[in-house]
TrEMBL record:
Organism lineage: Eukaryota, Viridiplantae, Chlorophyta, core chlorophytes, Trebouxiophyceae
Organism: Coccomyxa subellipsoidea (strain C-169) (Green microalga)
Name this protein carries in UniProt: Alpha/beta-hydrolase
Domain named AB hydrolase-1: residues: 75-302
GO molecular function: hydrolase activity
SUPFAM superfamilies in the record: alpha/beta-Hydrolases (SSF53474)
Length: 340
């Protein structure tokens, strides 16, 4: 396990472009474009308990589009060591084509600050983040939006479903984990015998930013987390992989839930998705073959199409496998066996 006091070098992840890191998104085919991000609008703020949350909200680019037929707003929760500026413009623009999208800095990261007397213990980190997300939803006047979390953000989204299920409608967990000792800590374990910077580079890195992704993000507003902020997230991850995590609590989730994984993800591998799918009644699993931890950035059109179909479904959602993804619990169980 990575020692928390060694995490100061985690800041090097922000600019990591080691070839091994690119391996975990080897099929990323997007060409960096000169994208205009004015559609993001201004950075706003909301007071939620001890947290001053920085966020942005934006909707369809076509202001003349009819307001009828739009999908429910979608709240996005970003991953470890990231701010809301780490979402790619292409993904945001595609998700916002027919809905309002809300992005924000997680509590204690970037521009979202926590009062000194409100900072949570590492063991309470994810529940605290979930409470903040639910509070933000209420503070900005949303009524049961859908929520999509990626990586650490997926863990937060699962906590929202467990503890604040009434605050959201549908839940999308992309590259997440239910934690506990039975959950794979592939990246953290893989980096246990070398310097932190080298460990995370060779393990695929937690941010996994090859040059093409970094080029696309270069047009996003500057919003970089401090080393101490990332250290707090690492401490939380260490605690999250103790005991049972939230596995015993998943059966209480009643929100329709879509679980997305990728066959080449070494950060939160397919084996981490089994307990989520098994624990949440009626949850649906989709696997992107040949993709890594950044599958949602690799296959933007397909991923957004999947999200749109899931959020628009009036009843039970049954995705049909196509050339980009496969579906079903059998698929994740097969991959679980292969990873052991």
């Amino acid at each position: 396990m990575i020692a928390v006091d060694e995490a100061s070098s985690l800041a090097s992840l922000v600019t990591s472009t080691d070839d091994p890191a690119a391996r975990d998104c080897k099929n990323y085919r997007a060409v960096a474009q000169n994208l205009n991000v004015r559609f993001l609008g201004p950075e706003r703020s909301a007071a939620v308990g001890p947290v001053y949350v920085a966020y942005r909200r934006f909707g369809p680019l076509d202001l003349l589009a009819p307001l009828t037929g739009l999908q429910r707003p979608l709240v996005l929760v970003i991953g470890i060591g990231c701010t809301m500026s780490d979402w790619t413009p292409r993904l945001l623009r595609a998700l916002a084509a027919d809905r309002e999208v809300i992005i924000f800095d997680n509590a204690g990261i970037g521009a979202s600050t926590i009062a000194s007397d409100g900072i949570p213990a590492a063991a309470d980190y994810f529940r605290f983040q979930a409470q903040t997300v639910a509070g933000l939803i209420a503070a900005i006047g949303l009524s049961q939006p859908d929520i999509l979390g990626w990586s650490l953000g997926a863990k937060v989204a699962l906590h929202v479903a467990v503890y604040h299920g009434d605050a959201v409608r549908k839940v999308i967990s992309a590259a997440g984990s239910a934690g506990g000792t039975g959950s794979s800590t592939a990246v953290i374990d893989a980096v246990s015998h070398m310097s932190v910077a080298a460990r995370l580079g060779r393990a695929g890195a937690l941010l996994e930013r090859p040059n093409n992704i970094r080029a696309e993000k270069a047009v996003m507003p500057v919003d970089v987390p401090e080393v101490s902020e990332i250290r707090a997230q690492v401490a939380a991850e260490v605690e999250y992989h103790k005991g049972d995590g939230i596995v015993p609590l998943l059966p209480r989730v009643t929100n329709p839930t879509l679980v997305v994984t990728a066959s080449e993800d070494i950060t939160n591998p397919p084996s981490n998705q089994g307990p989520i799918v098994a624990g949440i009644p009626g949850s649906v699993l989709v696997t992107f073959p040949g993709c890594g931890h950044l599958a949602l950035f690799q296959e933007v059109d397909t991923f957004v199409g999947l999200v749109n179909n899931f959020t628009a479904a009036a009843g039970a959602f049954t995705p049909q496998p196509d050339q980009f993804y496969t579906c079903g619990a059998d698929d994740v169980m097969l991959q679980t066996r292969n990873l052991r």
